[in-house]
Amino acid sequence: MCIFCKIVNNEIPSNKVLENDDFIAFHDLHPKAPIHVLVIPKKHVDCFQDAGAEMMAGITTFIQEVTTLLGIDKTGYRVITNNGEDGGQEVYHLHFHIMGGAKLPFGHMIDEPHKNM
Ligand code: 5GP
Ligand code: ZN
Predict the structure, then answer these.
(1) What pTM was estimated for this model as a whole?
(2) Domain spans of the chain?
(3) CA dist 92 → 56, 76, 113 (Å)
(4) 98 alpha carbon to ligand 2 midpoint, in Å?
(5) How far is the CA of 39 from the centre of ligand 2 (A)?
(6) Using a 6 Å cutoff on CB, does residue 23 contact ligand 1?
(7) pLDDT (tens digit, 9 = 90+) per residue, 22-55?
(8) Which CATH code fits 3-102?
(9) Which pLDDT value is given to residue 106?
(10) Is 95 annotated in the active site?
(11) Is the CB of 26 under 6 A from ligand 1?
């Protein structure tokens, strides 16, 4: 069983922000922004590439509820999902990073600008 499925099953603790029948939001263990929350579906899906439209519709509304609860719906935030090896995915259970609480820097996505970009 993957680490986020263990969080779903309460086998390992998490600092939960919001939960409903289908999704959970909890604080990232190693925050990279003043607010850094992860949103996951309770049903195991490896990554964004495997996510269906119905799940994505539900998770969109859930993320909007979470950002409102966190008080960053008006100030702004970033939603990120890392997909697969080149995307830098470390945990293979679909999750969205919600980051906010400060004006976030952007850039340094790759070390050198790619010649074909
Ligand atoms: P990824 O690189 O897969 O997009 O992000 C995985 C994220 O999960 C990382 O930001 C990491 O800090 C977080 N993380 C990994 N293990 C745990 C855990 O056991 N609990 C919590 N709350 N976050 C975790
Ligand atoms: Zn899982």
Answers:
(1) 0.94
(2) 3-102
(3) 17, 27, 28
(4) 19
(5) 12
(6) no
(7) 999 999 999 999 999 999 999 999 999 999 999 9
(8) 3.30.428.10
(9) 87
(10) yes
(11) yes
